[in-house]
Amino acid sequence: MIPHLHPAATALAHAQHVVVITGAGISAESGIRTFRDTMEGLWKDFDPATLATPEAFERDPATVTRWYDWRRLGCLTAEPNPGHIALARLERNLAATDRHFTLLTQNVDRLHQKAGSHNVIELHGSIIQWRCTASSRTTTPPPEPFTTFPPPSPFVPSAILRPDVVWFGESLPESALDAADIAMRSCDLFCSIGTSSVVYPAAGFAELARRRGASILEINPNPTPLSPLATWSLRGKAGDLLPALVDHALA
Ligand code: OAD
Asked: CA-CA to 2 of 20 to 30 Å: which in 20, 57, 164, 219?
């Protein structure tokens, strides 16, 4: 057991409602690139304005859907890592002891669900699911590359599909925001894992939790704007620290 984990593990052992928010960092050890890390962030090679906005899709739907299809296939072949698995285990344990667990994720890769997490709120949608631009109906395309870009909608002739993700300039799904709001009302331990904490409204949840008296635990190899607010800021990889923390809390 890593000694500096002790107080956070004790808080986890006694919490009644744990709310976790995850970002790209938790999937880094599954081989999915983060957005902003200096050496390997996705936005280093691609300009978000040309790929992750409604305007970009309007202007060049073929390029945008090709990029998202490439990322979709990467997510489909990725496997959850020990960080995802530890969170699923924590959820099972809390449920078995009549306590609550809510996982808010900014990730679109579905790796939390693949690891066995159930109460997952996808704040930025999912790349595994695609949406008809005319009817808004969603579909889960087969795990092979699309053959036409943009892919045609299976629902409405002459309409096309877009990834069911939130782009810059778009609102988060109302159902996800409502579910997050409800979770935040009773949260007594808020954990921020693998996120740079710079994209709102997700970044604001920790501040809200703090104002409401919850303890804040951050896991990240690097400091973030949240670090000064956190009760405990653990520097390291989620895949190393989370299993150790959960093992200790559940021991
Ligand atoms: P970022 O790429 O901004 O941040 C990833 C964070 O993970 C950084 O703070 C890293 O230090 C940390 N990190 C890297 N490896 C890690 C590891 N093994 N364990 C734990 N932490 C690690 O990704 P997000 O914060 O998720 O939104 O970005 C938020 C949103 O910005 C994304 O959902 C996406 C993006 O634009 C949309 O596309 C709407």
From this structure: 20
Segments forming the whole domain that contains residue 111:
5-31+80-124+172-250
Task: Identify the burial level of 175 via C-beta atoms within 10 angstroms of its C-beta, where 0-12 means exposed, 13-18 middle and 19 or more buried.
Answer: exposed
pLDDT score of 14 more than 70? yes
Q: Above 60 in pLDDT, residue 3?
A: no
- Residues designated as active site: 124
What's the CATH number where 93 sits? 3.40.50.1220
For residue 27, the CA-to-ligand 1 centroid distance in Å is 9
Query: Any residues with Cβ below 6 Å from ligand 1, and which?
Result: 23-26, 28-29, 34-37, 41, 52, 106, 124, 166, 194-196, 199, 219-222, 224, 237-239
Q: Which uninterrupted H or E stretch holds 120?
A: strand 120-122
pLDDT at 30 exceeding the cut of 90: yes
Rounded to the nearest whole angstrom, what is the distance from the C-alpha of residue 96 to the centroid of ligand 1? 31
What is the DSSP secondary-structure string of 196-238?
A: -S-STTTTHHHHHHHHTT-EEEEE-SS--TTGGG-SEEE-S-H
- Does 40 lie in the same domain as 87? no
pLDDT at 48: 73
Q: Indicate which residue's Cα is closest to atom 31 of ligand 1.
A: 199
Nearest residue CA, atom 16 of ligand 1? 25
Please report how many Cα atoms fall inside a 13 Å half-sphere around the Cα of residue 220, on the Cβ side: 26
